Automatic annotation (TrEMBL):
Has an important function as a repair enzyme for proteins that have been inactivated by oxidation. Catalyzes the reversible oxidation-reduction of methionine sulfoxide in proteins to methionine. Belongs to the MsrA Met sulfoxide reductase family. It comes from Novosphingobium clariflavum. Residues 3-160 form the Peptide methionine sulphoxide reductase MsrA domain. The gene is msrA. It catalyses: L-methionyl-[protein] + [thioredoxin]-disulfide + H2O = L-methionyl-(S)-S-oxide-[protein] + [thioredoxin]-dithiol; [thioredoxin]-disulfide + L-methionine + H2O = L-methionine (S)-S-oxide + [thioredoxin]-dithiol. Coiled coil: none annotated. Pfam families: PMSR (PF01625). Its EC number is 1.8.4.11. GO terms for molecular function: peptide-methionine (S)-S-oxide reductase activity. This is Peptide methionine sulfoxide reductase MsrA. Signal peptide: none annotated. InterPro entries: Met_Sox_Rdtase_MsrA_dom, Met_Sox_Rdtase_MsrA_sf.
């Protein structure tokens, strides 16, 4: 298994998408890219810690390449919105890729370039936490009640009911060969 970390707005929404992608073994919601150790959801939501709501994906690279994973990521959120996704506004909802090694950093650049071709050069997704060939951002798992949120509480949350189904439809339409059966 390999690991990828991406931030594309609300982690509930991004997690729901990737739990349906072939080759994905597990998805964990959490926080990355900030200045406060062990941040809480309330702290991150205030936008003062610098963290992004993100997901850490463990996947099988023989089934899903990192490049394909990033294409699904870029294609299932709006990478042209700066520090927001829909009604979620703030740096905690930014679009970002957090590469874990040189190869991931190179592939992140290529994925952003591909997405820019599809989005008229307006992609604002950043590559963060990678300097001197080392991933230098701490990962903090979100509180337990955020994990697998769509499978439980999310089904009763009006925000999730409005936002997640369109993302899942986009996944099924645009990435048919990447959806679990």
């Amino acid at each position: 298994m390999e690991t990828a970390i991406v931030a594309g707005g609300c982690f509930w929404c991004t997690e729901a998408v990737f739990r349906d992608v072939i080759g994905v073994d597990s998805v964990e919601s959490g926080y990355i890219g900030g200045t406060v150790a062990n941040p809480t959801y309330k702290q991150v939501c205030k936008g003062t810690t610098g963290h992004a709501e993100a997901i850490r994906v463990n996947y099988d690279p023989s089934v899903l390449s990192y490049g394909d994973l990033l294409d699904v990521f870029m294609g299932t959120h709006d990478p042209t919105q700066l520090n927001r996704q829909g009604n979620d506004v703030g740096t905690q909802y930014r679009s970002a890729i957090f590469p874990l090694d040189d190869a991931q950093a190179t592939e992140a650049e290529a994925a952003i370039a591909r997405s820019n071709e599809d989005n008229g050069g307006k992609v604002v997704t950043t590559i963060e936490g990678f300097a001197d060939g080392k991933q230098n951002e701490a990962w903090y798992p979100a509180e337990d009640y955020h994990q697998e949120y769509w499978d439980g509480e999310g089904q009763r949350n009006p925000y999730c009911l409005a936002v997640i189904p369109p993302k899942l439809m986009k996944l099924r339409k645009s990435f048919q060969n990447k959806v679990k059966g």
